[in-house]
Structure formats: structure tokens, C-alpha cells
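Before drawing any conclusions, I looked closely at one protein's amino acid sequence and its C-alpha cells, quoted below without any editing.
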Amino acid sequence: MPIPKTKDLLDPGLEAIKRLGESASITEMEDEVIKALNLTEAEIAEPHDERQTEIQYRLAWVRTYLKMYGLLDNSSRGVWVLTPKGKEVQNVPARLIRAKDKSNGKSDKIILENNDLTGKSESLEVTEAVLDDNWRKRLAAVLLELSPDAFERLGQRLLREAGFTQVTVTGRSGDGGIDGFGLVKLGGLLSFPILFQCKRYRGSVSPSVIRDFRGAMVGRADRGLIITTGTFSREAKREATRDGAPPIDLLDGEQLLDKLRELKLGVEIKIIEEVVILADWFKTI
């Protein structure tokens, strides 16, 4: 069966977060929906673009819609939580309509209609550019234009800003994909080394990359980290956490964009000031 349309994923998305204890990370929600829908490996891996799969793209819209209707909220750390209304609602009787935005003749307008959640007929209209987080596409394009050396230096800076110490870039070829080394300190007392790989990549990282990287780690570190602009296949994710093997943490393209935004690395967040004229106030003078 094909991947369900976004409107048909609203209920599965809501139900997945309920089953996960009323809160979930993006990856947890995606995995739970995929399991519930029993999607095939080919459907799971179907690409939307070079940084995310089609199911990831549609579920991102699902989270946006559910938040717009007050059923979900999210923290700055990327955890999505059911609101009190979200806990009560059993299904989302919504209808999605695509209509040409005649105001500019260029972008489509998404209309989400719902007649039951609020007790009245309600429509929300937002342009696709707003829902799609256009900054992500622009930032992803910039990352893909970086040279391999520059992307490694970006990974080094990212880890330092995230709290790693003694972060060095090896820059050696034929080293099993190891690009650098860093120390993580816990509670100011214990520290352990982590080897990392920075993979400027279009598409999905395969499990063979994980295995090669782990092989290069032997005798040097007990844990690794792979940072990529792309995605990780389901097999790669399973390989990264395989029982009996040194664990490897994975930071995919979407998580990388969020982390750069959070740490304000190459990203500036501007707050636009709006001036409101209180005409009634002048009448009281």
C-alpha cells in the first residue's frame, strides 16, 4: 500500500504519541507510526528530497497541523507533548484542501478545515512556505555546498559548543571514516572519549558505513558519533544500536539543522517588532 496522505496520518500520529506515554521525540513518533502502519522497507526509505524521506516529510506536517489545533505542543529540545485537549480527542476529523493563492499566483495555500474540535466550523490558512520551514531548505543547501574540510570544522565547532572538550579533527584519509576525537565529561568528574565522523551526504546512510566506522573505533574508543546532512536508513539505525557492539550515536540532517539553530551557529533569529496604533486611546485625551 502507498504511504497514506498527510490528512490520513493525523489520527495515527496522535495515537502514536498517546501510546508512547503522551510525549515523544520526533524519531520515536516516526518509528511508532511506521510500526502501526506496517510500512514496507521500500516505503520507509522512499525519499522526499535529499535530506528526508517522504514519511518523515508528511509526519512533520502532521505535527504542525496537530499543534495548530492545540492538540500538541513542543519544547525547544524537540519533544512533542499532548496538550489537555489532545489527551481527550480520539480522532481528528479534519479535511485538507490545496487551493491556488490568487494573491500572488505563485504559492499554494493549505486549508485545514475542522468542524468538531472547537464546536464550530473553522478553517486555518497558511502558505506552504510557512509550514515547510523554509529556513531548513536554505540552511541545508548551504551545508551541502561546504567543502569536506569545512564540514569537518563545522562538526568540530558544533561539538565544542555542545560541551565536548579537546575536540580535534584528524583529517586523515584511510582511517575508517574517523574525522575527529573529543571528550565528554559527566558531572565534572568522569570523562570518556568519542570518535566522530562528519558525512556531508545526499540521501540515506547505509549500515555498511556504520560497520566500517565501528571497525575503525576498535581499541580507540567505546562510543562513536556520526553527523550527516542526509538521513540514516532503518538498517543503519539498527546497526548503530546492535546488541553486543559499541554504540554509535546518529545525528541526521534534520537534527543537525535544529542543533545549529539552537546553538545559533550560522543562524540568526530575528524578532520583528510590530507597532500597534491604539486609536481608541487618543479618543480618551
